[in-house]
């Protein structure tokens, strides 16, 4: 079991638990490749076409101007919101001028309003204020209820609070998710409801925790739709990406329903999901895009695949010792390499868990570094690559030797990779998960 989990811990965030090693290799990795391919491709198209979000036929001054206008608009919208809030408050007060009871009530409402304001500026402090003033009970259920109602709360702030990795916040997250009723909703309907209730934070680990909680709740409300929570989790991301593919005008290559179905082969613990189900989900997204609160144009696909670092490097082959130029992307504790920057499909994935990095001298190439397994010279590093015919196979490297174009880039890559390795986002989460899994009944 440990072996399974340690392999799974490698995953971007699509981790399939309690599956044997063969399924991980034959199912999980291709699915990941597909999702990754889509996500990166979409991101790339958006970057290529618009260099960010600004149309490319503008001069530098026009861009600046556009930036200013956008900023100004944001400020104005915020001002308007503030004014509206104040007007509402005053109207409320006028209405409530009256008996002492009403005055007390008014006092209380005022404090709640202040708590909300504080919450929107700093969620933790806001909650603390409400608790200290007896306006909220200090239990995860009550806090979850307060966030779920969300009256006057900024959804970004709700997302920040729910995303904290503090044990208590995680309990609130779970209580919050429990308040969502997903029974008899299809996955798209449930996602619509969930993603509208707060703004998902940008950080991979937070997204992972929240989507995991979502998937658990969905499966709890809808027994028998999916073989496992992980299937639900994987499909949720596939749907979020489908949303971007279908509705972002910068993505020209719109997937058909057949492609969507093909993309999701084998994700139900090795089996296929009913075509009818996938068809319905596809149609639902096609007819109406997902909305996210406080949409700033950076949709989830973008967030999901925002790399720590990317650039050209030379990589020494495992079996055949030749140097190949590859486009490397470091994200979520994995190194991906591509033949061209615009490729949809990575040539390889190197999960960084348990690896170390060191500088090395090479007689042929300058600025070299190496990924290796500490204390284990001959063990092959767990990684995968795509063969020319599209098959996904295990890699055959005991070390990965890489050469950077300049000493500065070498330093920077080493720094970033070290940071990625030491963050080791999945191991701890996995350990916690395992504990939980072994203490709760499977359904
Ligand atoms: C909510 O908070 C975020 C981040 O602080 C801010 O960018 C956004 O404008 C706020 N939304 C509203 C409606 O005030
Ligand atoms: C879905 O796509 C639309 C259009 O690109 C975008 O505005 C929205 O943020 C996307 N939703 C999610 C959850 O990514
Ligand atoms: C990674 O390290 C952990 C902790 O030492 C270990 O349990 C696990 O088996 C290792 N994974 C691999 C693939 O060596
Ligand atoms: C990996 O390389 C070794 C020797 O370099 C070779 O014997 C072995 O067959 C290779 N394995 C694969 C799966 O290619």
TrEMBL record:
Major subcellular site: membrane
The places in or outside the cell where this protein is found are: Cell membrane
Which biological processes are named by the entry's GO terms?
A: regulation of ARF protein signal transduction
Q: Keywords assigned by UniProt?
A: Cell membrane, Coiled coil, Guanine-nucleotide releasing factor, Lipid-binding, Membrane, Transmembrane, Transmembrane helix
Q: How does it sit in the membrane?
A: Peripheral membrane protein
Q: Name one Pfam family in it.
A: Sec7
Q: The organism sits in which domain of life?
A: Eukaryota
Q: Which sequence ranges form a coiled-coil region, renumbered to this chain?
A: 59-100
Identify the InterPro entries for this entry: PH-like_dom_sf (IPR011993), PH_domain (IPR001849), Sec7_C_sf (IPR023394), Sec7_dom (IPR000904), Sec7_dom_sf (IPR035999)
Q: Where is the SEC7 domain?
A: 101-288
Annotated GO molecular function terms are:
guanyl-nucleotide exchange factor activity; lipid binding
- Keyword Cell membrane attached: yes
Ranges for domain PH come to 306-422
| Gene Ontology cellular-component terms listed | plasma membrane
The protein depicted here goes by the name Cytohesin-1
Q: Which residues cross the membrane?
A: 16-36
């Amino acid at each position: 079991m440990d072996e399974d989990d340690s392999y799974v811990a490698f995953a971007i965030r699509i981790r399939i638990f309690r599956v044997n090693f063969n399924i991980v290799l034959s199912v999980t990795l291709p699915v990941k490749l597909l999702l990754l391919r889509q996500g990166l491709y979409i991101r790339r198209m958006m970057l290529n076409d618009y260099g960010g979000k600004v149309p490319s036929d503008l001069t530098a001054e026009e861009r600046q101007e556009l930036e200013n206008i956008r900023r100004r608009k944001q400020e104005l919208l915020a001002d308007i919101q503030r004014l509206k809030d104040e007007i509402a408050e005053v109207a409320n007060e006028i209405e409530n001028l009256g008996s002492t009871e009403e005055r007390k009530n008014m006092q209380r409402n005022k404090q709640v309003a202040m708590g909300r304001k504080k919450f929107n500026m700093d969620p933790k402090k806001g909650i603390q204020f409400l608790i200290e003033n007896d306006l909220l009970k200090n239990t995860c259920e009550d806090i979850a209820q307060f966030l779920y109602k969300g009256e006057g709360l900024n959804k970004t702030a709700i997302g920040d609070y729910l995303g904290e990795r503090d044990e208590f916040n995680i309990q609130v997250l779970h209580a919050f998710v429990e308040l969502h009723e997903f029974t008899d909703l299809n996955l798209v309907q449930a996602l619509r409801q969930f993603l509208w209730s707060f703004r998902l934070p940008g950080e991979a680990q937070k997204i992972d925790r929240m989507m995991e909680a979502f998937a658990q709740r969905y499966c709890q409300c809808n027994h028998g739709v999916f073989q496992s929570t992980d299937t639900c989790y994987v499909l949720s991301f596939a749907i979020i990406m489908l949303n971007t593919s279908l509705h972002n005008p910068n993505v020209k290559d719109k997937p058909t329903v057949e492609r969507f179905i093909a993309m999701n082969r084998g994700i139900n613990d090795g089996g296929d999901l009913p075509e009818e189900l996938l068809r319905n989900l596809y149609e639902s997204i096609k007819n109406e895009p997902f909305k996210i609160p406080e949409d700033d144009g950076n949709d989830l696909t973008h967030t999901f695949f925002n790399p720590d670092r990317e650039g050209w490097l030379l990589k020494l082959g495992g079996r055949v010792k030749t140097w190949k130029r590859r486009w490397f992307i470091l994200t979520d504790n994995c190194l991906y390499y591509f033949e061209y920057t615009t490729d949809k499909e990575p040539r390889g994935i190197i999960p960084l868990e348990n690896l170390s990095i060191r500088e090395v001298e090479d007689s042929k190439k300058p600025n070299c570094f190496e990924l290796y397994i500490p204390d284990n010279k001959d063990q092959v590093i767990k990684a995968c690559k795509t063969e020319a015919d599209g098959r996904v196979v295990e890699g055959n490297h005991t070390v990965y030797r890489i050469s950077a174009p300049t000493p500065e880039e070498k330093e920077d890559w080493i720094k970033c990779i070290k940071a990625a390795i030491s963050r080791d986002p999945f191991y701890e989460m996995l350990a916690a998960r395992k504990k939980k899994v072994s203490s709760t009944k499977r359904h």
